[in-house]
Fold this sequence. Notes:
71% of the residues lie in helices and 0% in strands. The protein is an all-alpha fold. Among the domains are: 2-47; 56-198. Helix 5 packs antiparallel against helix 6, helix 6 (136-152) packs antiparallel against helix 7 and helix 7 packs antiparallel against helix 8. The radius of gyration is 60 Å and the shape is elongated.
Amino acid sequence: MKSERRHDLESNELVVWLDKFRPYTGQATAVVAVVVSVLAIGSIWNSGSEAKQEAAWDAFALANDTSDPELMALLSAADNEEYAGTSMPEWAHVTWADRQLLLAGHAYLADRSAARSRLKKVEGIYSTLAAGASDSEVKNRARFGLARVFELQNKLDEAKEQYAMVQGDLESLASERATQLDLPEVREACAWLATADLPLPASSGAHQGQPNFDVEFPATDSGEFNTKTLEDLLENLTKQSGKTEKRYSEDDEEKATEEETAAPEDSAAAEQSPADDKPAEQEAKPETEAPVEPASEKPAAEASEAEATEASAETAAEGQ
């Protein structure tokens, strides 16, 4: 009985509590629905944000992988509203500013106006990122770059202030450079760099001939070569050529003597060779001569007839 009574009392208390909560049932349902909606929207937003981040970094990689030294495609990607809200624009801006600072340093003496124009552009980007970049690494890179801009402008105190605020991976390098800026020779070099100009080439019309660099050429040693005249050099060459011809003639004589010495030895060796070494044509039997036919008797008869005619002619002449 007691257990049943206790159960009835608990049931009555639950019913009482539900009766108290019943007026707020609609509000609780609405709250639960809002929470579920927020979670669903957040999930969709996160998936869309991840896709946007991925597309932004793909654009960054594509713009950075180019042969253009100016990296203008990277600047265009950084200013693209499609990638607003991602971390890519800050990195793109600081990367583009670093490249412009590098180009300005290379051209600072050759083209001072162009270098200063680049420095003016990147100074604003560096200042904005150093003050309000969401990524701490981007902020430190911007501070370091801004300090380098101040160095090229010979604003060494401002450069030291920026170096002192650099943290992270660049902190040790920035601290070392800030210490170097206190050295007199470094300050002198920065002051010279801010005002020095290279001489213009001859093609520009500002200078005729070679530019004057005030270079002191080292003095040459006054040796024997500097005192010789052209005739002396030709005479030395003639003597050397005569020595060469004499050496060649001596070599020819020695060769001829060796050949003469070798000739008797060759003849003696030939005499001492056995008779069996005769040529094959000598050992061959002579061919049988064809028999000579006897001269014809007709020419002899003709000769006797001619003699008889000549004798009769002589007899007739004597009789007359």
